[in-house]
Amino acid sequence: MTSVRVEHDGAARWLVLDRSEALNAFDEPTLHDLGEALDGCRDEAVRVVVITGSGSAFSAGGDVRSFAQSLGGDAPGFVRELASLMHARVIVPIRRLPKPVIACINGTAAGGGLSLALACDLRIASEDARLTMAYSGIGLAADGGSSYTLPRLVGSARAAELLLFSEPIDAHRALELGMVNRVVQAAELRSATAEWATRLARRPAGSLAEIKGLLDRSWGSTLEGQLAAEVEAMARLAATADYRAAVEGFVARRSSRSKASGQ
């Protein structure tokens, strides 16, 4: 039985973490299942990916019950293996997937669960969502790339505060800090996320892929390197049918408006 439910909504693929009895916490099987689901999203028919959780939580992060069980054995090895699995099968694939990934944060997002959301390209949160980095509360450091993504979203000082204190914040505070893009009422979360996914799916796939790639590259690039990458991306897109259709359509609409106004 899989712990990730895959749902199809037009060109959007929804990946639903489905361990509601454990607040969708991550264990090894769940990470493998999520990795396989992300692999399936490379299908060209999939234009947008949405990640959310079942029940009252997005994800509570690592399954602390399994952490407790590991204390009787090789705890460092267990933590190393679980974090490495998450990075290899989930975080890196999300960042390398050439299409937008939206986190639909429907409740608690803690530790690795919040790190998962931060790895996505866009985040929509329910107004009753609670977010916490959580790591220092159980004596661990950051994983899931959050020590990389969080400072770039909120700044280094705020990232230090959020990680060191690991205190929960509500969705509206997360919006103020720049951790999420939008906050909506709980009853509207699914429809608001679906609306964003539909709008993105209508955009040229190549354009979205190049934009995502440029944004990722910018974090480690010089100005000159980024300018060169932009030129190459623009040139690649100029060779596509989407580009030709968009330009020809723009010119046709402009000509129609000019004729209608008598110019």
- Count of DSSP H/I helices: 11
Structural class computed from helices and strand pairing: alpha/beta
Helix percentage range: 40-55%
Tally of discrete structural domains: 2
According to CATH, the homologous superfamily of the largest domain is: 2-enoyl-CoA Hydratase, Chain A, domain 1
Which blocks of ≥5 consecutive residues have pLDDT under 50?
Answer: none
User: What is the succession of H and E elements?
Assistant: EEHEEHHEEHEEHHEHEHHHH
Under CATH at level 1, the class of the largest domain stands as: Alpha Beta
How many strands in all? 10
Question: Radius of gyration in whole Å, from Cα?
Answer: 20 Å
Molecular structure report:
This protein has two domains: 4-201, 2-enoyl-CoA Hydratase, Chain A, domain 1; 205-260. The chain contains eleven helices and ten strands. Helix 5 crosses helix 6 (156-165). Helices cover 53% and strands 16% of the residues. The model has no long low-confidence stretch (mean pLDDT 94). Helix 1 links the parallel strand 2 (12-17) and strand 3. It is globular, with a radius of gyration of 20 Å. The protein is α/β, with parallel strands linked by helices. 35% of the residues are buried. The chain has a six-stranded mixed β-sheet, sandwiched between helices. It has a four-stranded mixed β-sheet with strand order 4-6-8-9. The termini are far apart.
